[in-house]
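Tokens as discussed.
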């Protein structure tokens, strides 16, 4: 019998099984295998796991013993409610860091996502902070918080899970905190972080600089422009970057790691309607407007490449699992499945068709499980 040491058993082996020994009729590795295989194949619920496991029992027995068959949906629910999400999160991050290619500088986008139907009248929806590797196209880590405002406290915990050397971390204005930027730099990474009025005079000083300075007369400001036309809409972007910010550090000595500042000005034209928006950023690097522009552009890809996929393909927003442990643990399993579907390249078809193929063909499901 083939072991599953390269996959579920290896990834989540450190996770403690909190069940009483006499109640452990179904081993934890078998439960996790069925759950992941179900999600890989397009299933979502505990009932799906039970039905899928029974339908694929002959195949599953080639991987693990399954001496007592497939657990009931109630058993799946109870086990995922008992597992410690912090242990799950740590194991997931260690696995992904081992998968990540380290040759080129990676851009890590950090952003939060709400599981909208995980809440009730008494309970706010679960909010998960994700770390997305833009070049490797992998979820590197995630951590759950009950409220969006708690992102400030969760982001440092997500960063602790990651290997930040030779990376550029991008975060929206929620992460613009001195403790967060210092943590990134001390771990060997760089950052490009959005500014808003939550940082008061820092935002105002950067905005005033780019408003008053003429880029054509100030050699320290680099400018690039590009435009796109899609679906009847024209979008014109101007990106500016300045690495001469000694004056800013003197005004704000707490922000000692700032080496550059930038702005992105966007004009959108749809028919006769025109909208304009300008955003400002602080960076820990002091040159190359192209590096700055790439980091900001790829950051917003987390919405299309991760959050949209989780909602449309994995129906995460429709999940009604309200137990906090279970909701967080299943969110991690979805990200394991997403990483496996993304990294499997032998089948040149859409993600949806890869999952359908996994449901129909045992050999392809096995390929995904062992990828």
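Sequence:
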């Amino acid at each position: 019998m083939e072991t599953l040491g390269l996959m579920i058993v290896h990834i989540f082996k450190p996770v403690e099984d909190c069940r009483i020994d006499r109640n452990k009729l179904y081993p934890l590795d078998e439960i996790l295998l069925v759950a992941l295989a179900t999600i890989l194949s397009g299933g979502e619920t505990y009932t799906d796991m039970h039905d899928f496991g029974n339908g694929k029992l002959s195949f599953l027995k080639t991987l693990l013993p399954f001496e007592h068959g497939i657990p009931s949906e109630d058993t799946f629910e109870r086990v995922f409610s008992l597992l410690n999400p912090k242990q799950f999160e740590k194991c997931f991050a260690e696995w992904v860091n081992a998968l990540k290619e380290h040759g080129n500088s990676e851009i890590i986008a950090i952003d939060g996502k709400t599981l909208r139907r995980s809440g009730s009248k008494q309970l706010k929806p679960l909010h998960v902070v994700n770390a997305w590797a833009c070049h490797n196209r992998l979820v590197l880590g995630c951590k759950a918080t009950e409220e969006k405002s708690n992102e400030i406290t969760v982001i440092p915990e997500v960063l602790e899970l990651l290997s930040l050397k030779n990376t550029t971390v991008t975060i929206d204005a929620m992460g613009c905190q001195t403790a967060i930027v210092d943590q990134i730099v001390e771990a060997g990474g760089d950052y490009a972080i959005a500014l808003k009025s939550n940082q008061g005079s820092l935002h105002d000083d950067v905005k005033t600089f780019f408003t008053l300075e003429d880029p054509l007369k100030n050699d320290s400001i680099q400018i690039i422009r590009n435009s796109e036309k899609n679906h009847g809409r024209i979008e014109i972007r101007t990106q500016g970057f300045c690495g001469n910010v000694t004056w800013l550090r003197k005004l704000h000595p707490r922000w000692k790691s700032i080496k550059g500042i930038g702005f992105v000005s966007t004009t959108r034209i749809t028919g006769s309607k025109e909208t304009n928006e300008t955003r400002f950023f602080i960076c820990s690097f002091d040159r190359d407007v192209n590096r700055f522009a790439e980091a900001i552009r790829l950051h917003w890809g987390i919405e299309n490449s991760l959050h949209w996929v989780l909602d449309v393909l994995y129906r995460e927003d429709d999940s009604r699992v309200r137990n906090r442990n279970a909701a967080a643990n299943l969110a991690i399993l979805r990200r394991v499945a997403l990483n496996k579907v993304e990294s499997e390249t032998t089948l040149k078809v859409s993600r949806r068709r890869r999952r359908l193929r996994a449901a129909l063909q045992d050999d392809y499901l096995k390929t995904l499980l062992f990828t």
